[in-house]
Amino acid sequence: QVQLVESGGGLVQAGGSLRLSCAASERTVGAHTLAWYRQAPGKQRELVATINAGGATNYAGSVKGRFTISRDTAKTTVYLQMDSLKPEDTAVYYCYLNTYYDDRHYWGQGTKVTVTS
C-alpha cells in the first residue's frame, strides 16, 4: 500500500513562489501517472499537472508557464514548483498516483496553499 505525503504548502504573497513535495513510501514501478490536483474553497477538485513514467508532462491552462512538475531519479518524490503565484491559486493541493499495472489509485492528504493579494 503506497502512502503519499505532501509538504511545502503555506502562506505566500502574490508573485511569490512555493515548491510542493510529495513523498511516496516506495518506488513506483511500471506504467504510472503522478499528478497534482487542487481544490479551492467552493470549487471542484481540478487537475493541475501530470507526469508519467516516461517523464512526459501536462499542465492545466491556468498554470501553464508558471508551474513545473518534476520527479526525482529515485522515483520516490514528485515536486510542483509554483512561481508567479496568484490569489486564484489558493487551494488545498493533493498528490495523486495511478499505477496502471494494477489499476490502483492513491491520494495524499493534501497541503494548503494560500496566496494573498
Molecular shape: globular
What's the average pLDDT? 94
Q: Portion of residues in helices?
A: under 10%
Strand content range: over 45%
The biggest beta sheet is recorded as: 7 strands, mixed
By DSSP, the count of extended strands is 11
- The secondary-structure element order is EEEEEEEEEEE
Given helix and strand content, the structural type is: mainly beta
Continuous helix count: 0
Low-confidence stretches: none
Q: Cα-atom Rg, whole angstroms? A: 14 Å
Q: What's the end-to-end separation, in Å?
A: 40 Å
Written overview of the protein:
By secondary structure, the chain is mainly beta. 0% of the residues lie in helices and 54% in strands. It is built from no helices and 11 strands. The strands form 2 sheets. Strands 2, 4, 5, 6, 9, 10 and 11 form a 7-stranded mixed beta sheet that branches. The chain is globular. The N and C termini lie far apart (40 Å).
Task: Name its key features.
single chain; 117 residues; mainly beta; seven-stranded mixed sheet; 11 strands; globular
Topology:
Elements: E1 4-7, E2 10-13, E3 18-24, E4 32-39, E5 46-52, E6 57-59, E7 67-71, E8 77-82, E9 91-99, E10 104-107, E11 111-116
Parallel strand pairs: 2-11
Antiparallel strand pairs: 1-3, 3-8, 4-5, 4-9, 5-6, 7-8, 9-10, 9-11
Compact overview of the structure:
The chain has strands at residues 4-7, 10-13, 18-24, 32-39, 46-52, 57-59, 67-71, 77-82, 91-99, 104-107, 111-116. The protein is mainly beta and 117 residues long.
